Amino acid sequence: TADERDQLTWDQLKGILEAKYYPRHFRERMEREFYDLLQGDRSVEEYEREFARKSTFARHLVDTDDKKASLFRNGLTRDLRVLVASHGYLTYAETVERAQQIEASQLLDTPAQPLAQVAPLARQPAAIQPALPAPPQQAQHRHKRKWRGRDYRRNRRRGAPTQAAPP
């Protein structure tokens, strides 16, 4: 009937809005960025937030929980990825949670530096600052003999002239 044709499904409406507000080139770029997304220097929480944001532009890459967990795990740093993968197949939520737990335990295992090493020397009063050694001095004399080529010594020993005679 005419009423059924005029009603939009949620997916149809979403498609229309995406096409209007997110041009195709933008969606393709975001999909590429999502596929290449790596944790890098970010915390797991920051990486997960970015992963979730960019995954909305590549739903076909994360249409199952296994695909989503696999892509997330593959983007983790090598150390985290190996440790998370050692727990076997996990759901996406379990993968994120396990990565956060491992990251937290690694932060706890990192030895704390004494405050004196952390504070910059520039903030200490001049009387407390350690004296820095003088920079190394270069030799006062340098060998100033001009380079005359590879065959200079050989020709000199044989009595040959050091320079070619003009024609």
From TrEMBL:
Residues in Retrotransposon gag domain copies: 8-77
Record's compositionally biased regions (Basic residues): 140-159
Region (Disordered): 129-167
Origin superkingdom: Eukaryota
Protein name, UniProt field: Retrotransposon gag domain-containing protein
Organism name: Striga hermonthica
